[in-house]
Amino acid sequence: MTAPEGTAAGTYPVTVTTTGDGGLTASTDLNVTVGTGGGTTPPPATGNTPWINEINYDTSAANDAGEFVEVVVPAGVDVSGMSLVLYNGNGGASYRTDSFTSGIVSTTASGTYTLYKFTYPSVNGGVLQNGSPDGIAICNDTTLVQFISYEGTFKATNGCASGVTSTSIGSAAQDNTSAPDSSLQLVGTGNKYSDFTWTGPTTATPGAVNTGQTLN
To answer: Region Disordered: what ranges (predicted)?
Structure first.
């Protein structure tokens, strides 16, 4: 669903009505949130929505070696059409896409959750952009699941997040003095993204539940 250009940011009530072959109708009331860019934001996360849980994008290691993004996926979620998309905050375009079944991904089970770790190769300057700002999205084919950013916010210009303004992770950030084994990570207790808060840099826990985090 796309809001008309110029629609003010906010949450709007929408009624969706469907009609079956026999003429019977059914209606569902929804609240649609419009972001500052004029596009719609993803629906509020529920207990079966994947989320980005840990990030290592900039450290003192040569070429930012060891960069990774960890995603938590609840039980029963089909990831066959999902991908992790990196977005450049300078211009808003995506610059890398990896499926959840790509060769850079490893998985670890944790109770009813699976942790997907995307490990990026050590190349000149690193793969993950170093911010001010930059972002990461989870896409399910062409549907946006989550779009977050570090060191500020911006509006994506293509891909599943096109027209959507990113959700900032807040003040947590890395730079070229951060320890090579550090990361930004979520802490708290819960079963969805909004239950947790970002902290760091702190000692990284790739492929494991974060220190100070409980998944229930």
So the answer is: 1-23
Q: What is the CATH number of the domain that holds 131?
A: 2.60.40
Same domain (yes/no): 128, 159: yes
Flag whether pLDDT at 215 surpasses 80: yes
Per the omega criterion (within 30 degrees of 0), is the bond before 201 cis?
yes
Burial code (b: 16+ CB inside 10 Å, e: under 16) for 59-85 equals bebeebebbbbbbbbbeebebeebbbb
Q: Are residues 146 and 196 in the same domain?
A: yes
pLDDT over threshold 80, residue 2: no
Alpha helices in the chain (DSSP H): none
What is the number of structural domains in the chain?
2
Contact predicate 181/200, CB 8 Å: no
Cβ atoms of residues 37 and 163 within 8 Å: yes
Together in a domain, 123 and 25: no
- What pLDDT score was predicted for residue 11? 45
Task: Assess whether 20 and 78 both reside in one domain.
Answer: no
pTM, whole model, 2 decimals? Answer: 0.81
**Whole-angstrom Cα distance, residue 72 to residue 74?**
7
Q: How far is CA 110 from the centre of its chain?
A: 19
Residue-number span of the structural domain to which 147 is assigned: 45-200
For 76-97, write each residue's pLDDT tens digit: 999 999 999 999 999 999 999 9
| pLDDT for position 48 | 86
**CA–CA gap between residue 157 and residue 154 (Å, rounded):** 10
Residue 196 structure tokens: 């947790």
- Using a 10 angstrom Cβ sphere, with 0-12 exposed, 13-18 middle and 19 or more buried, the burial of residue 151 is buried
**Residue 182: both structure tokens together:** 């550090």
